[in-house]
Amino acid sequence: MSAKKKQFKYDSPEDRKLVEGLPHSAFVRQGTMVAFPLAFPGATLPVVPDESHITALDATPEGIVYGGTSGKRAHIFVAMWHGVTGMVFDLKMVEGAEQCPAVCCGKKKFLACVNGPRGGGRVLMTRLEPPPYDLIQEWGFQRPAFDDLGEPVPGEPIVHAVADLARERVVGITSRHLFTVDFEPAKIQVIGEVPGFGRLAVASQGSVVGRDGTSHLWRYDPPTQTLHREASSLPDGAWGRAPLVWARDTQKGTLYTADDSGHLFSFDAERGFSRSLGQTPVAPVGPLAVTFDGRVFGCCGEGIAKLFCYDPNRKEITDLGAAVSVLERRRYGYAFGDAVTGRDGEIIFGEDDDFGHLWLYFPRIATARTS
Hints:
By secondary structure, this protein is an all-beta fold. It has one helix at 13-20, and strands at 32-37, 53-59, 65-70, 74-80, 87-94, 99-105, 109-115, 121-127, 147-150, 158-163, 169-174, 177-182, 187-193, 201-202, 208-212, 216-221, 226-233, 247-248, 255-258, 263-268, 272-273, 278-279, 285-290, 296-300, 306-311, 316-325, 331-333, 336-341, 347-351, 357-362. It has 1 helix and 30 strands. Strands 18, 19, 20, 21 and 22 form a 5-stranded antiparallel sheet that branches. It has a 5-stranded antiparallel sheet with strand order 23-24-25-26-27, with no helix packed on it. A 4-stranded antiparallel sheet has the order 1-30-29-28, with no helix packed on it. Strand 25 (306-311) and strand 26 (316-325) form a beta hairpin. It is globular. Mean pLDDT is 91; it is low at 1-11.
């Protein structure tokens, strides 16, 4: 008697149509991806599907990841994979908020920016009190109390925010203004008007940069609290529709970004922008992160996003294929909302989709060359 072939169950008819239309070689061809649910598997339930779009990530130097979700209601969570851990813990369900555009880790505290359905953005802050590393023994988690610092600018949604290099202050933008938040003491200050379009990044000399119209970047220097409008010119490219995304090389301070058509550029605060480093397989370019050897990993395209790698040593962009995780439970990655580099150089993508997962990507280690 022949064995009956087991049928794989897709999440929806649309999933089947999208996935079965791709050749097997279209899926991730280098490294390994693992999709991790927003839960402690076997112990807690994950965040409900329509509240689990992961749109914000940050990590402490110890490799503890904090994040925020968007959807019907925003959540703030902490994730740990090193040592005897392997869990995501839902720290807070934020009533009256449906979007989390940024989370930022300081030295002893971290904050989350959330937006309500009518547009007003709020800043929430609490202490960094990570769960225990040893989850073999009896364990219990406590949800910390959050301080609500209010709206930086009444009625304006928060677009993005980043912590400065010293992790003492957060620099953020609303739809029209630049603001800062000091961790100690907790205080919000509005600096001035800037366009609220796209993400922010910390440049090589510690200044924070953001998009300033269609052809420039503004620059803010946290130590002197000085804002420079039209501080750097954007290079030749298609800079119109898509908000900027950034990735920072923590070893060199170099930033990477891309224009609307997928041309990748590097940026240094002293030298400005490079020429085009190459073009991604499809556009637009989504979240990016840089691992410790300088390689840039990111996703690009709409529908089922493709992963790609830019290697600055080889000066080439490689198409890595679409995201798929085959460990324990098969899952396909379609859309990602943020990315961060983990403690050991792995890239962590936040899935911007129903029943969102944290995707850990372990890049392939290059083969050693022999003389």
